[in-house]
Every structure is written in C-alpha cells, then in structure tokens.
Amino acid sequence: MRTIAFVTQKGGAGKTTLAASLAVAAAGAGERVIALDFDPQGSLARWGQRRGSANAPHKILVEQFEAARLPRLQAILQRIADSGFTLAVFDTPGADSEAVRVVAETADICLLPARPTHLDVEATAGTFRAIYLAKRKAAFVLNQCPPTPRSARASDAAKDLTQLGVLAEPMLSARIDYQDAVAKGLGVTEYAGEGRAGRKFRRCGPGSGRSSSIRKRKFRPNRQKRARSRACATAWPALRATRHKRCTSEASRF
Q: How far is residue 237 from each of residues 33, 116, 123, 210, measured CA to CA in Å?
C-alpha cells in the first residue's frame, strides 16, 4: 500500500481539497482508497460524512485519526494494507505538531501545496527543509494559481519553488469547482468532470497513461538530492493504477 501525505504549515493552501480530489481520482482509477484526517478540525472527515448523502460514484473510506493513536500508526497502516487497501491519503494540520512529524516520517511521499504568493513560498520552504532533513521524499504542488494563461505570478512562484526542490506538474488553477465539490462531499472529477478543473485533474491523475507528473525544472541539487528527486517522481498526481487482488473483507475501523 502506498501512502501520500499533504503537509504544509501554511493554512489555506488547499491540503484538504487536494487530498479529497486525489482520493476520488485514485478510486476512479481502480485503487482501494482510505483517507485519514489527522487534523483536529476534521474537515476531511466531514467531507467523508457528506459523501454518504451525495450518491458518490466511487467508494472511499474516510476516517478521523485521533492523536492518541499516533504511536500505533505503523501497525494500523499494516492492518489497513492487509485489508486490501492500495492507497492511503493523509490530511494533516496546518501547523507544526507531533501529528505532522509522525505522518511525514511515515508517508511514502509528502506533497506540499503552496499558493503563488511570497508568504506561501516562504512557509512551504520551511516545511520542505524539515522533511528533507528527515530524509523523506517530498514535492511542491503549486495550487490556486491565476487561471489566466502564462501567469507571471505563477511562473515566479514556480521558479522560486524549484530552487528549493521538486515541483509537481501541472500547476493547478483556482477554480470554484474544487470548493463546490468539497461542499457536496465529492471530488472535482465527480462533481464537474468535464469542467476545466475536472479535465485537468483527470488528465494528470491515476490511469492517465503518463509516467509521471513530477518534473525537475532548472535547478541543480547535489547528487544525493537528485537521486531522491528522481525517486519521488512517482506520486503526484499521476498515480499509476496498480491492480491488486480485490479483498472481500471491508475495513471500517482500525
């Protein structure tokens, strides 16, 4: 089972929204997905509750993960994997905390959403350094970019982020479909699959046929960092849909 965590200390960058839509896109590609909400605010967990009345076409298990269970995270994830799940998506608090540190050290890759603003880039850079020093794989996701073509603001932010590490592609534009989808308990590909946001997410998502959506731009990390950069070019958002033997048992509480 692969694990992907959305991590950043800057609030409002879109962690929960992206986690929800990624979980849906992966489920649509054939993955068995569980989404765990480590944020005490419980936004992702409430999104999961809304799915029950939304007639969502894709089945995703969504659970709140309490701080008291953090010491048992590895064992819990093993039980989830043994139950037949193929992907776990983690949503984390928007502040430095024990939950963020434990999740970052556990996930296969950490995705760091950032808006194209100076404050977001600064805050996300600090998070990236902490993850890098912990020798974990990480990539930036430039989110809520101006929808205008060739936005100078988005291009400048992308340049700044690639001076620090790996930037996932594509850059995601600010579209109201993301917010409307979450409000209804859906992912953007379920809510408005033929809209601009839905088409972009589907085109670059699981099962799209693209080998990777993480590319290294014009930055020059040292040899060790380049190796880690190549290794992490497997997760966002082009998750390769891996076919696993379907499990008849259903995991509802771990």
A: 15, 19, 22, 10
Instruction: Note the pTM of the prediction, 2 decimals.
Output: 0.79
CA–CA dist 191, 95 (Å, integer) = 30
Cis peptide before 170 (omega within 30 of 0): yes
Tell me the Cα Rg of the chain: 17
Q: Cβ of 109: how many Cβ atoms within 10 Å?
A: 22
Which residues lie below 8 Å from residue 68, measured CB to CB, with a gap of 6+? none
Helices 15-28 and 176-183: angle between axes, nearest 10 degrees: 80
Name the residue ranges covered by the structural domains of the chain.
2-231
What is the helix (H) or strand (E) element at residue 2, kind and residue range?
Answer: strand 2-6
Provide the residue count of the chain.
254
List the single range of 137-146, 199-208, 215-224 with lowest mean pLDDT. 215-224
> Which of the pair, 3 or 223, is modelled with greater confidence?
3
CATH class as words, domain 2-231 = alpha beta
The pLDDT tens digits of the residues spanning 86-144 come to 999 999 987 767 888 899 899 999 999 999 998 888 888 888 888 887 788 899 999 88
Q: What six digits make up the tokens of 47?
A: 């999104």
> 45 vs 17, 65, 108, 192, CA distance in Å?
12, 9, 22, 22
Q: How far apart are CA 140 and CA 142, in angstroms?
A: 6
Q: Does residue 162 surpass a pLDDT of 60?
A: yes
State how beta strands 138-142 and 109-114 pair: parallel
DSSP 246: P
Which residues on neighbouring strands pair with residue 62, listed in sequence order?
A: 35
